[in-house]
Hints:
single chain; 82% helix
Amino acid sequence: MTKTTLTTTKSGRVFILIYYILMMILLGASDGLRGVFLPLFEDTFTLTKTQSSMIIMCSYVGNLLFLFIGGYFLDRMSKKRFLCTVTFLWMAALLCYILTESYPVLLIAMVFSLGASTMLSTSLNVITPLLFAAPALYINVFNFTNGAGIFAAQNIGGQIADRMQSWHLINLVLLILGIIGLFFLSRIPFPEQEITASHGIRSTLDSYRGILKNPACKYLICICGFYYVAEHGLQNWMVTYGNEYLGFTRERAALYLSIFFGSITLGRLVFAPLVQKLKPGKSIAIFAGVGASLYLVGILLERSGIVPLLLSGLAFSILWPTIVLIIGTYYPREQNGIAVGFITAIATLFDIAFNAGFGTLVERLGFAISIKILPLSAVLFFLLYVIMRRRTKPYEEGA
């Protein structure tokens, strides 16, 4: 695949920037609503903690399916057609949220809304180095807008998540704005691409084998997996944990969650130039170490540890978008899409396993013990990353 560059026309630059910013905000909001509305789903459908876990687990099953399959097609379709197709699937799930109040439908829609949302944001991250100079800077700036969407959804959702009508309304707003996003996407004159990825089942299997043979692959899968558990675990369970165990009101717990992701959002904007200067590899080592330390202290101190827990969001801020860049440096450019899709899809099994068992674990052992899985995952993320950087060498230098 030849390296594409951002169109030089002024209108092209404007449309692509508006599209990136708008969609990153919407996708962040779509992801952020799940944990905020989880207590409402429990009340509405009279769910146990295990059944609540199923809602979140289904969203990560969607991530697994979309990333695994989508990574294959991302390298084999025009970028515009691919983004349009996945956006339509995401919007179809939102329509189900708007028109129904059914626990089974909610589970199925979670597969498609969160799977498509994750695939879209991952695709935009993968495409960024092909369209922009200084990709480490731009990818963190765009993920700043993604964090802004999460922050807004959690902040607003925390104030209105007391009835299902609010759930319908907020998804209607996302659907309307998604249609506007499609309009801007249709106006972007993407450069023509030379698609060199081979077709066929055998060639696809060979591609996956090649990805797995890379010595860094096993580390990258585990690193992404532990990151998922650490961040997504807090995103999905903070409101319930803060309300039922720490004794905060739902509104207060949702506020703390929004501050955590607000810290992530702010950090991506503030630290983006620093990541570009330090290089992605060194940046992750520094930020992951600080983030894991603050996260661990915050959880161990429970109610008294809210401040360090919230501050850990600043350190977490650059980790995910920069990890996506790092994955790309371990593979040839023409394999970036399938490598990122495959690795992040397999890593989603960590999310699925965590959410399949976390609700039951809480019921049996309580939050006091169960919640400690989250800081342990943050520590393992940091340690495995350090080990990987010492034992493996990127395909592209300068990472």
